[in-house]
Amino acid sequence: SAGEMRRDLMGETDLWKRVERERLLEHTPATTRLPRPARRRPSLVLVIALLGIAVIGGAWGGWRAFSGYMVVPEVTVPRFVGRSLSLAQQLASAEGLSLLVTDRVYSATAPADSVVSQDQPPGKTVKRGRSVGVVVSLGPEVVTVPDVQRRSLVEARLMIEQARLSIGELRETFDEQVKGGFVITQDPQPGARVQRGRALKLVISKGSAVVEMPPLVGRPLQEARRVLEELGITVRDVRTMPTADLDPGIVVEQSPEAGARIRPQDRVTVTVTVRPGEEQTPPPTPIVTAQPQQPVPPPADRATRDEKVTRVELVVPAADSTQEVRIVVIDERGVRTVFQKSLAPGTRISEMIRTRGYTIIQVYIANRLIQEIRP
After folding, report:
1. Tally of CB atoms within 10 A around 317
2. Which of 7, 129, 152, 331 is the most exposed place for a label (fewest CB within 10 A)?
3. Strand 287-293 relative to strand 307-315: parallel, antiparallel, unpaired?
4. Are residues 354 and 375 in contact, defined by beta-carbon separation less than 8 angstroms?
């Protein structure tokens, strides 16, 4: 039929499939099976030989590595201190070393980014490739100057020390506007950025060059003393007058008279009352006087010209027991205690106190400020 003829022509009948198989068999070579040789185990001698070779090779490699470490070349550590960090790094690299910055610190002498110290001393022999630790400078520490103008010298000193600065030259001058014992001007100016520890120059007011003597008669001695202190005046002499009409310790006479124009350094004397028969008994309030003395030998150079000698006298007031008396000096040398003792009521002391430059002498009894003296 037509369908059978078509399948026959397309090679889809059994005849053509049989012919294709016969053609393939004619062109395929015969396959020969070869016998598989028997697997032989390696001999014990060979295994031992291989293990020996491995052990000897490992030992040799380890010895070479160890020998390589032991024979690292040695170099001499250069001096890095005083050199810039970049130059120190170049010197270290040239010697086969490396630098390790272990810390950075402020220094008043070493410039910023310079080496301050090293943990391996110069000239020491070390192995090439080693790290050397160094401390590098941050330069001087800079602080801000506080404003101490129109402040008392005591307060100004505290503020300056808290700012990690110091007080240098102190000059004094009369000033009609600034109260005695207060700062008129300062150098450097407030807000300036300066190196830590720098000394400030201060000009201190001595108060007005000429003041009017205030009225003191009728005031208790302690109050009269405060009034004079505000004007920068120190009582030079205290006298007593027995009377039964007034309480003890009241000012009944003064010299100079009230209203007189005087200089703060002029001599001022007051007379206070005591009860009849009690002239030698301890006063109810402390009596403090101060008199400037001529330095010996007479001033020659500036150092001795600035020296002051003041005689401070004190009568310890009445109390139930002994009282601690302390005299503190503030001048160019700083703050220091020049006298400190526990004294019985009525004890009289006389101390010669040497100071330099502008001076404040403070008298304390039982830790209470009794009087400030500005000689």
Report:
1. 19
2. 129
3. antiparallel
4. no
